[in-house]
Amino acid sequence: MAERVIPLVDQRVAALRASVPEQAIPASGLLVDSLGRPLRDLRISVTDRCNFRCSYCMPKEVFDKNYPYLPHASLLTFEEITRLAKQFVAHGVQKIRLTGGEPLLRKNIEILIEQLAQLRTVEGEPLDITLTTNGSLLARKARALKAAGLQRVTVSLDGLDDTVFRSMNDVDFPVAEVLAGIEAAREAGLGPIKLNMVVKRGTNDHEILTMARHFKGTGVVLRFIEYMDVGATNGWRMDEVMPSAEVVARIHAELPLVQLEPSAPGETAERWGYADGGGEIGVISSVTHAFCGECNRARLSTEGQLYLCLFATQGHDLKSLLRAGASDADIASAIGHIWHGRSDRYSELRATLAPDTGTGQRRVEMSYIGG
Ligand code: SAM
Ligand code: SF4
Ligand code: SF4
Q1: Mind listing the pLDDT tens digit for each residue in 179-232?
Q2: Which of 168, 274, 327, 329 is most enclosed, with most CB atoms within 10 A?
Q3: DSSP class of residue 315?
Q4: Ligand 1 atom showing the smallest separation from residue 45 Cα
């Protein structure tokens, strides 16, 4: 009988205690880590559950009916999320992305969006609030999300070939319904819409051009993501990674491209425009071209742990601090203290690190801390 993979509960529980430093660290709108990187972007995972089983993220063999998802009481409430987010914003966060798991599975997510939409940056501006979704529930929810204050969405879609897509999401979900979700988002005004396509060599790389042709000239910004070694369950192999340079070359051969300037510091995607003015695409080269030097992203897990890197093995437990009655000033200090100590730059070091096996330090799953 095949051995069952051990559920990944351990590292979720074994978070580092978030402590309040003796010397207060008041929020000043600029918080830099030990490598001089400011905190600007907060990704909040609102659920560790998903209705898809993409093999690169939540493989069925691990995320089956016995998988110990977080119990409801462990999840941060919307009020707790908003209270934490407020302190992050006071430290300089300008952009919040809701993710998961599948964020649209979280009941009443619109209420959280309404609360977050009330926050203002230190300059008094509204936040840039967005959400990454697999699109399966978007046709139903797009209007309510917009009304709640969501500005735009990123939808994940790994191909237009129905057979390929159904097999990649591994729950037989049809392309047509995701396309309907994208259309609903456009009609609701949730734009500019970005589309994430994870490219796995030998699985969906033949869909690169089909996707580029389909979305060229539509205003949708298609972004090709290198298949990453996140988590510890997806069986990642370097030979399945298609370097972004190859993706760009393939598209350029048929649809000439010119490189564009980055839209913001710390932007993960390298931008390319169609030479004939038919819009732009992006490539996210997390494997072949590390962008840790400008990484300004913090991640808040579903149960309130702060992660400083997508590839971290441990988070910092902010929920316990909250639930122990910490004041806003204490929370701001704790966040400041944690960010000051940040030195993570996994992608830059990837080539020199030992594989993620047998160390007892499993990396967290992407479905837990969000993409
Ligand atoms: N369920 C939502 C979705 O799929 O859009 C949000 C969460 S998902 C973890 C966020 C993004 O991470 C998606 O665009 C997904 O394609 C991407 N992703 C997940 N696993 C990945 C991997 N191993 N390599 C690269 N991207 C990955
Ligand atoms: Fe679910 Fe998104 Fe992960 Fe796919 S990538 S399994 S849709 S969380
Ligand atoms: Fe940021 Fe970590 Fe990714 Fe580097 S590896 S870009 S530090 S999340």
Answers
A1: 999 999 999 999 999 999 999 999 999 999 999 999 999 999 999 999 998 877
A2: 168
A3: -
A4: 7
Alpha-carbon Rg of the chain, whole angstroms?
A: 20
pLDDT in tens, 5-58: 444 444 555 789 899 999 999 999 999 999 999 999 999 999 999 999 999 999
306-335 burial string, b = 16+ CB within 10 Å, else e?
Answer: bbbbbbbbbbbbbbebbeeebeeebbbbbb
CA distance 85 to 117: 11
Distance (angstroms) between ligand 1 centre and the Cα of 72 equals 23
Residues with CB under 6 A from ligand 3: 291-292, 295, 297, 309-311, 344-347
In degrees and rounded to multiples of 5, residue 319 shows phi and psi of -60, -45
Residue from 225, 345, 349, 353 whose mutation best tests the ligand 3 pocket (most atoms within 8 A of CB): 345
Q: What is the DSSP letter of 72?
A: G
pTM for this entry: 0.93
E strand map for 30-127: 41-45, 95-99
Average pLDDT over residues 82-98: 98
Query: Does domain 15-250+295-369 bear CATH number 3.20.20.70?
Result: yes
368 close to ligand 1 (CB < 6 Angstrom): no
Q: Where are the domains of the chain?
A: 15-250+295-369
